[in-house]
Structure prediction request, 206 residues.
Amino acid sequence: MTDYFALLNEPRRPWIDPGALKSKFIALSSELHPDRAHQRPEIERTAANQRYTEFNAAYTCLCDPKERLAHLLQLERGSRPEDVQTIPAATVDLFTEVSQACREADALLTRRAQNASPLLKVQSFEKGAELADGLRMLQDKLRAKLDHLDAQLRNLNMAWESAPAVGSPSRAHVLPCSRLEQIYRDISYLTRWTQQIHQRFVQLSL
Prediction:
């Protein structure tokens, strides 16, 4: 498999500064853009397009924390994390809160679509504003959790910086891949719940 870290000349590590990565991507994009090879033979143009496509895929992967961790774990262990459906223990209460908020929002949206009375529509929009405020606070709570995990990833960089070189047989034994996988799962759920909350918030605001 392609090592996206190597492709972007980035050391393997759990946390990457988003701004620095974007700046590197923009700089390299101008050098690798297929338009620079438009006067070359077709085989070279095709190769340039393939390189640029892979380069974009690498950037898309590394700038997304969830995808970056899955890719890093696959590089270090030879396989992506398994798709486990069990909610992490640390986020069970938050899952319950998100589920309840989504159910309430969905119920209101259903009633709003069925309401014909102007008075009921006004009451529905007032209730919608109240639910939207709750969703906004829940979004803030999810963001705080994600920020906390982001800080943990930054701290884990030290383990990768001090690990034996890539290819060393002892590398896999010293890297905290199990902890990294736990964070990957937390981020996966928190990101999914954030998207669900955002979707309901937008619908209630219409």
